[in-house]
Structures are given as C-alpha cells and as structure tokens.
C-alpha cells in the first residue's frame, strides 16, 4: 500500500512542470527535508526518474512502466476504489490475498494487483494462466449492502466495466459471454471470478477477481489454450499499457457501481445486454446438476440466465459453462 506522504509528494512532482524545491515540498507536506529526500529515494527504487539539482530542488523526468502502486494511484481519478492498492511481483493468487485482507478488516475499495500469479484462480475450480509481466491480474475487495441473491449482478457489472475500459485504449470488437467472460471473436481475452463471504442473507464481503490477457504473444500461450484464448496485443496488433488499463478499469467500475447504488441493477443490465453475445443464441449450459440445452432468452434482475428448452420450459441458470451451438 502506498505511503500517504509519498502519494502527496508524487502529486506535487506530477503537477509541476519544472523543479520544486525541497523547502517548498517540506512545507506543503509538513515533513522535514530529510524525510522528503528519503521518499524521493523510495520513488526512485520504484522506477521513477527524478532529477535533483542543488538550489533548485527535484524534477520528475520519467515514470516507471511497472504496475507500482504509486504509478497507478497518482493518476487514478476515483474517490475510494483502488486508493488502497497492494502490489506484489509474484503471488499464489490475488484472490487469496484479498480474502486475507478482508478477514483482517480492510475496508471496501482495497485492490490487490500482481505482476505474476503462480496459481491464478478461474471459475469452477479451474486455474488461470497468468504469466509474469504480460497480463493484468487483480482482485477488488467490496463490502456491498446488498442481499445475497444480488451478488451475481456484480459479476455482470464488472464485465461491462472491463469491456468499456478496454475500448478506451483500443478499438477491437469485444463482447460479453454470460456470466463472466469478455471475448474477442470466439476467444477469451478476460475472465471474472466472484467469491464472497456471507451468513444467511447477509453479505460480509465480495472479492472480484479480474484476469486480462494484455500483452501475450500467441506462442506464449500453452498449446491447449491457443484455440480458446487470445490477448489484446494479438487482436490490436500492438502492445498496451497495463497501467493505463488498470486505471481505466477501476474508474469505470467505481462509476458503474455508483450508478448501481443510485438506480439499481436496471441501467447496468441494459448496458450488459447491449454488449453480450449470449442472448438469443442456441446454447448448451453445463451446470453442476446436469446439462440444459435451449435458447438464451435473457437474464433476471438478479443476473440469472433464462434458458428456454425445446419443450418451452424456462430454466434459471445460476452457474454453468456455456457453449454456443451452431
């Protein structure tokens, strides 16, 4: 998590086009000039290039290309989401760390971000391929005041936020596959995993994991994934900034969640339906309780998929693998 003084110091350096004296920084931040120097050194360790000239002060020359908390928070225009950001070069899973933070009482809006996951988690107990330095792997800790039945709505909200954020950076055809995938063509580019802690009908917290294939090349995917997965770089034919994408997602998510709190799920549902590829399709849903085949007719106000079989019976699908039939 980023030190508050360091955050303010970086803000002063970013808004200045030239040198800022150590004395001025000391007065604005109410710390000693020695403390300013120590924080400058910490920023340099994160990859910031900061010039220091005697009698002139400090000047920011270049920002790091890494996913360091300071490089994200300094540009993040949110009021609460991501302002407490925990970054790790390597973890087993960002979901695991987010759960630990939640159990320790961390407030809503904490975000865990990693450069590499050793055991990334997908839906239905699957693993998520998340190599070093190429993708965006993060988990959001949310403490929503909603009933347990409404939690699936947050998965759909997140898929819309991811799609809209990606489109800010690159123009490629994207669509959402119920309940949690963002696809380009028939290949997955992003997935969402929602986990929660609840008692009876009370939600304690929700952890929303987001995994996005950003800059992988085709040969970097395991052979068995090459027909199923793709990356933004492959589709756009250019590398993208993971930092800019992380910022865009957090800002879109907070904006959509504000709309959700103010107006309910209706507006988010409309946005999701405008971007989905699932509705109206002849699909097979493989659920934990068996397989159902039919036409996807829509989603309920709770985000549950409505599937009409060949006999006209409407099935509510809460969790399943969906495959479109030709």
UniProtKB/TrEMBL annotation:
Residues 22-41 bind DNA. Biotin binds at residues 117, 188. Pfam families: BPL_C, BPL_LplA_LipB, HTH_11. GO terms for cellular component: cytoplasm. Gene3D superfamilies: 2.30.30.100, Bira Bifunctional Protein, Domain 2, Winged helix-like DNA-binding domain superfamily/Winged helix DNA-binding domain. One of its GO terms (molecular function) is biotin--[biotin carboxyl-carrier protein] ligase activity. Residues 80-261 form the BPL/LPL catalytic domain. It catalyses: biotin + L-lysyl-[protein] + ATP = N(6)-biotinyl-L-lysyl-[protein] + AMP + diphosphate + H(+). Its EC number is 6.3.4.15. One of its GO terms (biological process) is regulation of DNA-templated transcription. Keywords: ATP-binding, Biotin, DNA-binding, Ligase, Nucleotide-binding, Repressor, Transcription, Transcription regulation. NCBIfam families: birA_ligase. Acts both as a biotin--[acetyl-CoA-carboxylase] ligase and a repressor. Belongs to the biotin--protein ligase family. This is Bifunctional ligase/repressor BirA. The gene is birA.
């Amino acid at each position: 998590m980023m030190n508050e003084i360091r955050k303010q110091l970086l803000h002063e350096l970013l808004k200045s086009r030239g040198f800022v004296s150590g004395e001025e920084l000391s007065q604005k931040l109410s710390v000693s000039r020695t403390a300013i120097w120590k924080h400058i050194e910490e920023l340099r360790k994160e990859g910031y290039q900061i010039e220091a000239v005697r009698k002139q002060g400090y000047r920011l020359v270049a920002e790091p290309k890494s996913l360091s908390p300071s490089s994200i928070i300094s540009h993040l225009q949110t009021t609460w989401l991501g302002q407490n950001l925990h970054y790790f070069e390597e973890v087993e899973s960002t979901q695991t760390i987010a759960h630990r933070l939640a159990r320790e009482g961390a407030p809503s809006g904490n975000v865990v971000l990693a450069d590499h996951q050793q055991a990334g988690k997908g839906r239905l107990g699957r693993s998520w391929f998340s190599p070093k330095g190429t993708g965006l792997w993060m988990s959001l800790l949310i403490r929503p005041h909603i009933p347990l039945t409404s939690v699936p709505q947050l998965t759909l909200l997140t898929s819309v936020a991811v799609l809209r954020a990606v489109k800010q950076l690159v123009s490629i055809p994207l669509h959402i596959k119920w309940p949690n995938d963002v696809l380009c063509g028939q290949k997955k580019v992003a997935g969402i995993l929602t986990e929660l802690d609840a008692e009876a009908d009370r939600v304690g917290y929700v952890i929303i994991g987001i995994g996005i294939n950003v800059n992988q090349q085709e040969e970097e995917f395991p052979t068995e994934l090459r027909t199923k997965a793709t990356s933004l770089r492959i589709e756009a034919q250019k590398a993208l900034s993971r930092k800019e994408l992380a910022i865009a997602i957090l800002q879109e998510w907070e904006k959509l969640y504000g709309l959700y709190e103010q107006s309910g799920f209706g507006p988010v549902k409309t946005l999701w339906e405008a971007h989905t590829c699932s509705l109206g399709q002849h699909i097979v849903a493989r659920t934990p309780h068996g397989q159902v085949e039919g036409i996807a007719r829509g989603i309920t106000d709770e985000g549950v998929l409505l599937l009409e079989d060949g006999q006209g019976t409407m099935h509510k699908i809460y969790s399943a693998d969906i495959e479109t039939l030709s």
